[in-house]
Design goal:
By secondary structure, the chain is α+β, with helices and mostly antiparallel strands. The protein contains 7 helices and 8 strands, in the order E-E-E-E-E-H-H-H-E-E-H-E-H-H-H. It folds into 2 domains: about 80 residues, OB fold (Dihydrolipoamide Acetyltransferase, E2P) (Beta Barrel); about 100 residues, no CATH class. The strands form 2 sheets. It has a 5-stranded mixed beta barrel. The protein has a 3-stranded antiparallel sheet with strand order 7-6-8.
């Protein structure tokens, strides 16, 4: 059988025995794949820095049916993204994106999701200072949009009533988005969503960006994102990278 050669992003690595690595790859043509890189820890001549977190390139994978662990024989890197490892803010943001991608994908191909993850990581790489948080938020909501479960923002998720553009509305993760005043009364755990926050979410799920996001607003958006993803993607599984990203200390160097 011919090996599969497909564009891939390294999302997670961990040691296997004394010399090898198991890597979780997001691939353009085969979704998420767990692959074994034999001898990768014993010598860097074979893979070099190709197996660093967030590296991207053409992976050569020998696929065998009914096997959970495939064999990785090469990864020709086109984007190394080393900047994600030089700043705690960038690294934890990239880790959050990787966790979201791993929790929301399968071994089915999803080019739109792959593109969203690629774009999200690149946004974080290019961000400076306080814009790192906004870049991660925009990237994460772009991924949510590519999955097809963006929150309802312009009309009530329960009764479909349309909101005025500048209205503050309720928001319920379980309901799937914004709620009118009447429906909010019967929605446990709902919160008030200011019009500025609703505007930001609308920009992000549409692929846009928000300039000058205040730090307190950014923190509120981090929490909102984590809770929404927990409701619709991860279920009862803890979002560890999200927690570190949300609670960590941010570097602006």
């Amino acid at each position: 059988m011919q090996p599969l050669v497909t564009e891939s992003i390294v999302l997670h690595t961990f040691h296997y025995l004394e010399t090898s690595l198991i890597i979780r790859l997001m691939t353009r043509e085969a979704g998420i794949q767990s692959v074994l890189a034999r001898g990768a820890r014993n010598s860097r001549k074979r893979f070099g820095g190709a197996l660093d977190l967030f590296a991207q390139g053409a992976a050569e994978i020998h696929m065998r049916p009914n096997r959970e662990l495939q064999a990785l024989t090469g990864l020709d890197v086109t984007r190394a993204r080393p900047r994600l490892a030089t700043d705690v803010g960038r690294f934890t943001a990239g880790s959050m994106i990787a966790e979201l991608a791993l929790r929301s994908s399968s071994d089915e191909p999803s080019p739109a999701l792959f593109n969203a993850v690629e774009e999200s990581l690149d946004r974080i790489v290019e961000a400076e200072g306080s814009t790192i948080v906004e870049s991660a938020l925009s990237g994460a909501w772009l991924i949510v949009a590519s999955l097809g479960f963006s929150p309802s923002l312009d009309g009530c998720a329960n009764c479909d009533s349309v909101f005025k553009p500048d209205a503050a509305v309720g928001f319920s993760h379980a309901a799937g988005g914004a709620l009118c005043a009447r429906c909010r009364l019967s929605a446990a755990g709902s919160r008030l969503l200011p019009s500025s926050a609703r505007d930001a979410l609308r920009f992000w799920v549409g692929g846009g960006r928000v300039s000058d996001l205040p730090a307190l607003d950014a923190k509120a958006h981090q929490r909102l994102l984590r809770e929404f993803v927990a409701e619709h993607v991860s279920g009862d599984r803890e979002l560890r990278a999200f927690k570190v990203w949300e609670e960590g200390s941010w570097s602006v160097s």
